[in-house]
Design brief:
- This protein is an alpha+beta fold and 388 residues long.
- Strand 3 and strand 4 form a beta hairpin.
- The termini are far apart.
């Protein structure tokens, strides 16, 4: 990251990428102006420099850029998105198929091909960096499996890598994180699926059996001489910063960084994915639910990274705009999680759109996201006019 001198910071300007106090601590998000008070505090605390990969933009430049982006949104954007969607769908299904075969070898032949998994994770990292918005629409991709653990492993891995990318993890740590996330629930594979797929309440013995998957998974990985940094998240991914987790009731810095990331990734996937025992939420409502129920359980920096990774309004979220039109988010804004690109489905008068209209929401343009729509409020995405 670039080093930025504190005395060169401009009040009320924004930076196009997160600003860090050091290698890990996020000081400002891209949508937050640098205020004079912050500059004075940094100087008082004897911080001479901060770090960011972004560039500084003044208010007048932000307005001009927003207008330009709105003008440049054309039909080509939609055509490219459809092509990318097809490519990513093939990638996602291939990743799921790989995961199912990989765990089949483990279950039936007691094999854990770490070399093969490492190479797969490398390709996944490339795709996450290239197509983050589209890859994180995994809940829209229906892939028939007889065990949701395959989907959960894949979804959690995609989320964890997206978070790791925001946190600027170096390449070797991204690979370790990806492998660790793929294997974090390996202990569940030794538990009868009927136990964790049931929609009936579990008794205490059944709950203890499921909770034991953390210890079983860690032991299984150590039997294959998997490095400790990769094995430990299997043991720790249900630990919580406030000591309310299991199995060792760890707190704060006793929990590894990979475990903190995987805890948030697999919890968010659990909230937003279909399960036999609960209804799922869309990405926006799932994120709000996670933030509301945080209460010191999750690492704040990792939570912030999740917001940057998926945006406050993830791709696929149906939204009501400030001008009373309704649409669906087709692209997030890496510089401002609150201002995505929206495809308009219903105009401000309640009429379904027949033409392609894409809007870059922004505070400067006056068109912003008012709120996410509930399920019963969402227009049909393939409808061009109201049903008779």
């Amino acid at each position: 990251m670039k080093q930025i001198r504190v005395d060169s910071l401009i009040p009320d300007a924004t930076i196009t990428e997160p600003m860090y106090l050091d290698e890990k601590y996020i000081l400002l998000t891209p949508d937050t102006p640098v205020d004079q008070t912050l500059i004075e505090r940094l100087k008082k605390w004897n911080y001479n420099s901060v770090f960011s990969d972004g560039i500084t933009i003044g208010r007048s430049e932000i307005t001009a850029n927003a207008e330009q982006e709105t003008v440049e949104l054309t039909l080509d954007e939609d055509i490219k998105q459809k092509s990318d969607n097809e490519q990513i769908t093939r990638f996602y299904f291939d990743f799921l198929s790989f995961t199912k075969d990989f765990f089949f070898q483990y279950m039936n032949k007691n094999e854990l091909n770490m070399g093969l998994l490492t190479e797969k994770v490398k390709t996944v990292i490339e795709q996450v960096k290239k197509h983050k918005d589209l890859i994180l629409r995994f809940n829209e991709m229906k892939y028939p499996t007889d065990n949701y653990l395959y989907n959960h492993s894949v979804n959690s891995t995609l989320l964890a890598l997206a978070i790791g990318n925001i946190l600027k993890l170096p390449p070797h740590k991204m690979i370790e994180l990806g492998i660790a996330t793929m294997l974090h629930d390996i202990g569940m594979l030794r538990i009868p699926p009927a136990l964790y797929l049931t929609n009936k309440p579990l008794n205490q013995v059944e709950k203890k059996t499921i909770m034991a998957h953390t210890i079983a998974g860690y032991k299984a990985l150590k039997n294959f001489s998997v490095p400790e940094s990769i094995a430990i998240p299997a043991l720790e991914h249900h630990e919580r910063l406030d000591g309310s987790g299991y199995p060792r009731i760890l707190k704060g810095e006793q929990i590894s960084l990979y475990s903190k990331i995987i805890a948030i990734a697999c919890t968010f996937d659990g909230i937003t994915a279909d399960r036999p025992y609960k209804d799922c939420m869309d990405g926006h409502h799932g994120l709000i639910d996670l933030l509301k129920n945080n209460k010191g359980k999750y690492d704040e920096n990792v939570l912030k990274a999740l917001i940057f990774a998926i945006s406050l309004y993830p791709v696929g979220t149906f939204v009501l705009l400030s001008n009373n039109s309704k649409g669906v988010v087709i692209k997030t804004n890496p510089h401002n999680p609150k201002c995505p690109i929206v495809k308009i489905l219903v105009d401000k008068n309640g009429s379904y759109m027949t033409d392609q209209v894409l809007i870059q929401t922004s505070e400067e343009s006056g068109i912003t996201v008012f709120r996410a729509l509930e399920e019963n409020e969402r227009p049909k995405i393939d409808q061009t006019k109201p049903e008779a």
